[in-house]
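Retry 2 of 3 after timeout on previous attempt. Resubmitting structure tokens to design endpoint.
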């Protein structure tokens, strides 16, 4: 079994357990569709923030290279931390927008 298949199965199992437990013990509605739409909205926002951060980061590196004359690697913008931080930005933005409605 490949690692990817194992991880997908694991997440599917824990998602089902959370859905079952949420319905049984927390009294949550059985319709999950609105939550899935919010998830897709968050993923889209995370991708948008990631692309925006990459564009601003590349621009900043080029400007800093010109201003300081020192070498700054463009690869610093491809660190996995940027994706995580972009996801946090998207989450906060989504919550902020929801609270403003």
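Retry 2 succeeded. Sequence:
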């Amino acid at each position: 079994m490949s690692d990817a298949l194992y991880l997908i199965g694991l997440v599917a199992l824990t998602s089902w357990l959370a859905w079952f437990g949420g319905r049984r013990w927390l009294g949550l509605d059985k319709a999950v569709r609105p939550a899935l739409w919010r998830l897709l909205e968050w993923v889209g926002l995370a991708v948008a923030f990631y692309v925006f951060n990459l564009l601003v980061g590349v621009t900043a590196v080029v400007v800093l290279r010109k201003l300081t004359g020192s070498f700054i690697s463009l690869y610093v913008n491809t660190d996995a931390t940027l994706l995580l931080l972009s996801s946090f930005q998207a989450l906060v933005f989504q919550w902020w927008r929801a609270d403003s409605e």
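Attempt log closed. The mean pLDDT is 93.
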